[in-house]
Amino acid sequence: MDYFDISKTKLIIPELWKKDWDALIEETDEKMTVLPEAQKRIVALFKDIDDDSFTFSRAAWLCLTTRLFNIINAVVGACHSNSDLLFDVLQRIFLEYWFQVYTMAQSESQEKRRDYLNAYAAWSLDCDLMYQKYLLKPSVMDGIWDIEEEKEYLESSEEEKIIKEKLFGPTNTEKLTGDYHEAEKRKLAHKSEEYKKRDKIKKWLEHEDIKPWTERIHKIRRKRRNPNLSFYELFDKSQTSFYQKIKAKDLSDKDLEFLYAEYKKSSMKIHGSSFLDNFVVNPKILFPKIMGDSDSNTEKAILIGSLATSLILPLLFLKKAAWPKK
Asked: For residue 263, what are the β-bridge partners?
């Protein structure tokens, strides 16, 4: 089998609909059942797929459903930890996801939806390629395979090794020798694997189903210095960022309007540009907000679960485009 020929790949459809979802819903707190109920409806979309042959549109659809399922998993985890930070980041992730799905599903034509799925495949693979190119920069590789750090670790006392492992995690010492020649061999072997990944992605991007979108990405990129481009820019050159996409849509939906406000707040948290959000502020006290607001986070979880459920129909439309009836 040609390592680079993805068209010969078979898709694995997880049989998650066989899980006892009703039992899980029964065990879940009544206010939070919207989350497992949404997951039950997502995996039900897999049930009648009987063609496991690969196309980029099908792989893109599986990518989208996997993302939504995992977002809900993350929301469940955030509920258990009662983390304001996790919820803020998850709301940002979910809002971008919501817009991507609706952008692809909005057309009434199955052929157009299938083409939008191909566009998503090309765009996300191109992002993977950019990452691989960055990873293969000599300065990055030298940072990953630093023989001096290896020697320093091997020459450390046991107490120093314990401290380093507590700070940076356990170290696999089996392959560490402190020998420049051996370290260089491992570095070259690792680079060879990363080059294979890069070349594999390049080959996939040349596939006839997504090549027109790959060429469009290159055309847009040639016209400016910034190599990054938003998914929406593939369809409208004015939408060069998620913010521009938001401006182009009427946010009359109160849920979406609230989520965008939270999106802006989460950006501040990610960049560390919020002071007040880290404190409970009263007239006489400034108290570090170590624990989250349980009631507020429950509302956020329910909101994401409800909006996730609203995506089942658009995902069904996209599924029908990826697996058209013969």
From this structure: none
pLDDT tens by residue, the chain, 326 residues: 455 677 778 999 989 999 999 999 999 988 899 999 999 999 999 999 999 999 999 999 999 999 999 999 999 999 988 888 888 889 889 988 998 999 899 888 999 999 999 999 999 999 999 999 998 888 887 776 666 666 666 667 777 777 767 666 666 555 555 556 666 777 778 788 888 999 999 999 999 999 999 999 999 988 877 788 889 888 887 776 666 666 666 555 565 666 677 778 888 888 888 888 888 888 888 888 887 788 888 998 999 999 999 999 999 999 999 999 87
Q: State the distance between the two ends of the chain, measured CA to CA, in whole angstroms.
A: 28
CA–CA separation, 303 vs 190, rounded Å? 44
Give the structural domain span for 84: 6-322
> Quick check: is 246 in a domain?
yes
- The set of long-range contacts for 283-292, using a CB threshold of 8 Å and a minimum separation of 24, is 289/84, 291/82, 292/81, 292/82, 292/83, 292/84, 292/85, 292/87
Residue 1 in domain: no
* 264 lies in some domain: yes
In a domain, 128, yes or no: yes
Residue type for 218, please?
Answer: H
Domain count, the chain: 1
